[in-house]
Amino acid sequence: MTMQLEPIPMEIDCVEPPSPGSDESQISFTNDYESLPSSGPPKHAHIIDLAGYDECAELGGTISLQDAIVTTLFNVSPETLCSFLSPTVHTFKAIFKGNKQLVIWRKGLEVFIGLFEHHQSLKVYGFEHIAGLLIGYDGSWHLKVTAGDAYSNPKWPDVWAGKFESYGGISKMVVELDEVGMERRASVMGESILRGRYWGCKKDIKST
Predict the structure, then answer these.
(1) Per the domain annotation, does 138 fall within a domain?
(2) Residue 19 backbone dihedrals phi, psi, to 5 degrees
(3) What whole-number distance in Å separates Cα of residue 65 and Cα of residue 184?
(4) pLDDT tens-digit readout, 120-138
(5) Fewer CB within a 10 Å sphere, N or C end of the chain?
(6) Is 39 helix (H, G, I), strand (E, B) or coil?
(7) Count of domains forming the chain
(8) What is the CA radius of gyration of the chain?
(9) Of 124, 123, 120, 91, whose CA–CA distance to 108 is shortest?
(10) Is residue 169 part of a domain?
């Protein structure tokens, strides 16, 4: 996945991270999917226990984007998550149609996630958030790029190629340049995905 984004610095207010000792704000995981145990390392993906999620989120629990992704796919069906994770499936693409559309797209070890609207009158996809990640052979996930207010032609090959830009007169694309900023946008994105409960939306899922 080639992300040809022109960096635009984003001003980020300094916020103290939540105390690691505040257990009530910790997101709980389940062991419902054997290969994604709740005890897995922080950079690995986990299935979030949705029963207690809302309360934890209100208390400031931090969402990892990879956790939101696998939780969404697992709640579509365990078979859907299995297809996404399978090394024998080269390409997996799921588009969920909520208030904003969600795309979860994997090619090999590269993953693209986007929350977007299809502005048909403007003939563009407008992405509120995008993230590019790489899944390591050990199961760890690594953020490679994040951005917001990014527009592209409504052609999926252009999206995968990273052909994003600002849309004149409407908004200016923001690209995070540091790990803290990337993690922050990814967490906001993960929270939006979970709150949108996309697994219950209309969806188009293909794998090859």
Answers:
(1) yes
(2) -65, 130
(3) 10
(4) 999 999 999 999 999 999 9
(5) C
(6) coil
(7) 1
(8) 17
(9) 91
(10) yes
